[in-house]
Amino acid sequence: MSFKKKMSLGILTGALGLTLIGGGTWAAFNDVETTNNYIAAGTLDLVVNPETLFDLSNMKPGDYITKTLTFTNNGSLAIDEILLNIDVEGWEDVLHGHLPDNGENTLEDFLNQFQVVLSSDVYDGFYSLAELSNLSDHKMTVEGEGVAALLPGESFDVTITLQFLEDDTRYPNSRLYEQNKYQGEGATIKLNFEATQMPGEEREND
């Protein structure tokens, strides 16, 4: 074998040896440790009592009813805010041929005949049902920023008064009151209460 061939073979063998050493490195010593960790989501559970506040028929202007609604935090997480919105179902315009305008009105006209007064230790306000129905969310709780409105296991009461307002406006050149147009009309009012969580924060282990 020539010197050139021997030299080439030696270089190839050396390169192959380096490849085996580099690609096949492994350690005989190692150590494995495990930490046991646990995470779980809390619960947000607002309970409202009673489920039905108003079940009224045959109302007349001037009538009112007052009820107490109790909010309880039945979950494990503090509640930041309680939001209110309402749904209205089942209303239809009842016409009255003896009235100058046949008694035509809208749902908003009808809802404006009713005032809602809300009162609690942390909140007071009054609105027409029409105003509440036009709000996507109405904040029921008033607290400092970052302060829980309702801690787990706690409750608070809100007094709610619903009144059919009196309006002595008459039709022009008539003895008839305009509120006559609402006779026979009614609707189902659903009060929807939404509890929200407190903002996320840095946590320490329990």
From TrEMBL:
Pfam families: Peptidase_M73. It comes from the Bacteria. InterPro entries: Peptidase_M73_camelysin, Signal_pept_SipW-depend-type. NCBIfam families: cognate_SipW. This is CalY family protein. It comes from Fervidibacillus halotolerans.
